[in-house]
Amino acid sequence: MAQHTTNRRSAIDGRTTRHLGYTISQQKRKRVKEVFGWLKTVGVLRKVKLRGVPRVGWLFTFAAAVYNLVRMRNLVEATT
Question: Any long-range contacts for 59-63 (C-beta under 8 Å, 24+ apart)?
């Protein structure tokens, strides 16, 4: 859960946010949300057109593999 930084009350107060672990947790959360956001928009997982757990599981695995390939391509381009 993230802390509200606007002018309203937050359920997360300074006792939690002052620790380094909270900052690391927020960074990891952002990275995971990016993956699922990509899978929903580009990886066609928002509205699956397949039926059954095995087929949807296969589609998820395939889309995640494609995401990893795209990410590897971008990492290689960034390092060269």
Answer: 63/39
